[in-house]
Amino acid sequence: MKILKFVLFALLILSNQLIDAQEKTEVVYLSGTDKDNLVDWDFYCSDGRQSGEWTKIGVPSCWEQKGFGTYNYGSGMGVVDMASEHGLYKYKFKVPKNWKDKDIKIVFEGVMTDAEVKINGKLAGPIHQGAFYEFKYGITKLLKYGVENLLEVKVNKMSSNESINHAERGADFWVFGGIYRPVYLSVSPKENISRVAIDAQANGQIIVDLFIDSKKANDVSIGLLDLQGNIVQNIKNDNITKENGKWRVKGKANDVKTWNQEFPNLYKLQISLLDKNRKTLHQIEERIGFRTIEVLEGDGIYVNGERIKFKGVNRHAFHPTSGRTTSKAISIEHVKLMKDMNMNAVRMSHYPPDVHFLDVCDSLGLFVLDEICTWHNPMLDTKVARKIVKETVVRDVNHPSILMWGNGNEQGWNPEVDDDYAKWDIQNREVIHPWSIYKKTNTIHYSHYHSLVNDSYSKEKILFPTEFLHGVYDGGHGAGLDDYWLRMWNLPLSAGGFLWDFADEGIERTDRNNAIDLQGNKANDGIVGPNMEKEASYFTIKEIWSPIYIEDRFIKDDFNGIFRLENRYHYTNLNQCSMTAKWIKFDGPEGSKKHKLLSKSKVDLPNLSPGGKGKFNVEKPSNWKSADALHLTAIDVYGNEIFTWSYPVSAPSKLSVPLVVYTGEGAIKTETKDQKIRVEANGITYQISKESGMLLEVKKGNQIIPLKNGPIILNQKAKIESITVTSKEDKVEILAVFEKTDKSPGWSTVKEYASDIIKWTIHLNGLLDLRVEFKGYRNLKGYRGITFSFPEEEVAGMKWLGDGPYRVWRNRLKGTRFQVWENDYNNTVTGEAGEDEFVYPEFKGFFSSLYWSKVKGNNNNGFTVYCRTPHTYLRMLTPQEPKENKVGKTHPKFPEGDISFVMNVPGIGTKFQKSESMGPQGNQEHYFGNDDEPIVLDLTFEF
């Protein structure tokens, strides 16, 4: 076998040496290749900025980003008040004399929106309409050889076809003008293969449609190469059928590695067009992957025999500095970020992307839904829709990543062209109507959680929302995903779904000193910001969509080291991944953020096939109980982190013991005057109200530390019954007792409960203990906990031990890590341009699993608080409400005060949904009932 491969390899090298370079297609760029590599063309803009005179513009580009014309954002309701400038382009170029006998085409990868192309004053072909589609003209007869040629392009930002304007120009996204994707010459031999369509199945079966522009062609040979161009095997042609310039060739490759999202194995198919003497007339190479797609009605979507679930996201082709003009580097960055979130799919919303993005999906591994651009009613007229479908499929047909075609978006589907896809797609992939129940699928958008019951007349349809959990501001995406995914994963007919959307589409306005414009709440619905700034949902998604699913676990004294897990890969055995366990000790508030590693060990993951459930064991070192946390980090087959799970080991009451030391010298002074209890210890003076038991003032030396007006017990209606002061040699105790109540809210039965209390203890060294006891409520739609005032302008930052570094909501608790964190103050409104735009993590909000926090002050020394009560949330200030928050869906009501310690937090909604419609975790009801013990908050303040 090795000898045979060597012979085949030698023959291929020899044959390539005999093939003249002119017998391959040459690509010659007239423009630059991407947003970072432009070529200047002459340019004239008819209206708006820099209009009315000839100047220069870099191509490819959106002319607004080069200072021309007028900015437009689609209304989402059709074309309203759109600027309609046009641009004139001129470019001179030479072609060599020896091209006379070539077949030369000029290719435009994308022009917004109507393009009229002339070569040397003559039309190259009909005006092209549609902003997102590649088009080309044969220009062999229009060129002058050996001398200079003139290319002229007139680009109308608005189309003369109103259905295109409605679909593209009036949609809910930025509208740009210009030659925004590259332009090049495709130079082929006169006798050539004009295009090719390939169906490479998982079993190695290959069917190739060749579209031949040749009178001399007699035969074809096909070779399978690796990506380095080395021969793998020659494909024997089983048969060739020829008719009307189209040849169909069938063959079989042996022992191929299949393509899938987890193992994106690729090859090159080398196709040589031969004359009757076996001389090569034209040779092309096309990158392929062997895979089989099946959409089985009432069952699911299968790739290579495995039923898949989309962990997907919608994605615009966009960059804040260059608009729709992007680059392969951007495509790589986007796909890597998606895969880092453990996503496996992407929807092209709402138009075909740059070719390089699909290339990257092929090579790095993402399933793709490719889509033409439509937007609600009215739909594209049939004539132009047929052209657009053809242009999309012909360009993208050979990408193994593409599993399905989307015939437009949200009621913009033209059913007259549903069958057109099959005319151009040799693989006959399924067509869907995003947002619709169509044929085998239900792709409903923004459905409430209860829709996943899937009990309607369409319950036999394969269910996968092509948009769900809209991510405007800080709502959606990660918020609600845990509930949705639990149902989706266990629902047989669910094929997952696609979040809306990947990145905030914020454009740097060249008419506003490059300020980022998000059009209010229309374009800020990304998981990442315009420059890929990671929001909290990024990490929540990463955990929830981890292909290694670990059951929730709490580590107590009787921890046995066993974790239960499930393999949620589609193709990867868990023994191909690795895991490391770290037992960690943290420094206190005055130490560093770094941790001390007590022990590190390898975890042996089980031999577990996709879909299997099992368990693994974490080695317990002899000193494991002295650790503060256990971190488990899983690594995939490519060396990338899947996720790091964290588990507190020490209880907060135990961890605080060495940190809170009460010894001191001196004396404590106490006096009560004017209904104020004044206690002085170690240079710190406390004033506590004799009427309410609340802290009124903290003064250290001559400096006021502005923590006051607390604790207010949230949802507490009882009045103070008594306040007593007890002085001892080394401390002073102040006890406030509330009136008893004989009924617990939520219960109709009468029962006597213990009184709520507030107990302050001031120690000799100035430490201040606070113990608050209050009853649990049943069916509470509010907060349980305590709150204080601390003016926002007095806060500079905080350092804490707990979950972080991002804030949480009730329906977005995952994605954090338990360790020491430190954030500086910011006033970021997620996804909103402003003074602190896109600065993450957001400083203000709720933070879970508080052990201690050092609050840094502005013009004051701040304070440190130690929390002995497990599962306590720290509320740090109140996030600013988004400017266009709809009915409070994406800004829950916060407790009174500024800094709170609470036992529950609210969920957050989306642009279209309130949190309670997004699953159990978003419900407003909280259950705290405990007939035996009160809820106790046990804190120590150090000033």
From TrEMBL:
Record-listed E.C. numbers: 3.2.1.23
PROSITE patterns in the cross-refs: GLYCOSYL_HYDROL_F2_2
Class in the EC hierarchy, top level: hydrolase
Pfam families, per the entry: Glyco_hydro_2 (PF00703), Glyco_hydro_2_C (PF02836), Glyco_hydro_2_N (PF02837)
Lineage top rank: taxon: Bacteria
Keyword check for Plastid: no
UniProt domain Glycoside hydrolase family 2 immunoglobulin-like beta-sandwich: residue ranges: 202-291
Domain Glycosyl hydrolases family 2 sugar binding: 54-188
Signal sequence range: 1-21
GO molecular function term, any single one: beta-galactosidase activity
Keyword terms, alphabetized: Calcium, Glycosidase, Hydrolase, Signal
Start and end residues of each Glycoside hydrolase family 2 catalytic domain: 297-513
InterPro entries: Bact_Beta-galactosidase, Beta-gal/glucu_dom_sf, Gal_mutarotase_sf_dom, Galactose-bd-like_sf, GH, GH-type_carb-bd, Glyco_hydro_2, Glyco_hydro_2_AS
Cofactors that this protein relies on: Ca(2+)
GO biological process, one term: lactose catabolic process
Gene3D superfamilies: 2.70.98.10, Galactose-binding domain-like, Glycosidases, Immunoglobulins
Protein family (similarity comment): Belongs to the glycosyl hydrolase 2 family.
Name of the molecule in the record: beta-galactosidase
Native organism: Seonamhaeicola maritimus
